[in-house]
Amino acid sequence: ELNTGESLALEGLGFEPGRHFVLKESVPVLQKLLQTLKENKSLKIEIQGHVCCTQHGSDGMDLDTREMKLSENRAKAVYDFLISKGIAKNRLSYKGFGRTKPKFDLELTPEEEQANRRVEIMVLEK
Fold first, then answer.
1. Hey, how many other C-beta atoms are within 10 angstroms of the C-beta on 25?
2. How far is CA 94 from the centre of its chain?
3. Does the N-terminal or the C-terminal CB of the chain have fewer CB atoms within 10 Å?
4. How much is the CA Rg of the chain, to the nearest whole Å?
């Protein structure tokens, strides 16, 4: 239960390194988000992508598109999945933050890198 303006990291959502493709084992995380949106018809969210392992504020290179907007492309991948499953576009938006909002400024462990490499959902409207 999130209030408007609050966000939550999608735990267990992983991507291929340097790419915007969701790992097969992460599909259940997307299915759970899809179900939540289907059960809460008035819920509007922003999908927020974040990356690790780059200079402060910068984004990562998406190996598929060759663009320096990996965080945005990962957020858009979640957006595209939800749209493809029937969620109305006017209930969703997405944004890439690069490394502007790290949970750990200096990543010392793989767990800290993973905490920074995430997609969060922010509630815009309930």
1. 10
2. 8
3. N
4. 14
Both tokens assigned to 22:
């969701």
> Which tens digits make up the pLDDT trace of 83-103?
999 999 999 999 999 999 999
String of DSSP letters for 5-69: T-EEE-TT--B-TTS-PBPGGGHHHHHHHHHHHHH-TT-EEEEEEE--SSSTTPPPPBTTTTBS-
Instruction: Dump pLDDT digits (tens) for 18-30.
Output: 999 999 999 999 9
Residue whose entry in the numeric block shows the structure tokens 């907007």: 69
For residue 119, list its beta bridge partners: 49
For residues 45 and 32, what is the distance between their CA atoms, to the nearest angstrom?
A: 14
Question: How does DSSP classify residue 97?
Answer: -
pTM, two decimals, is 0.93
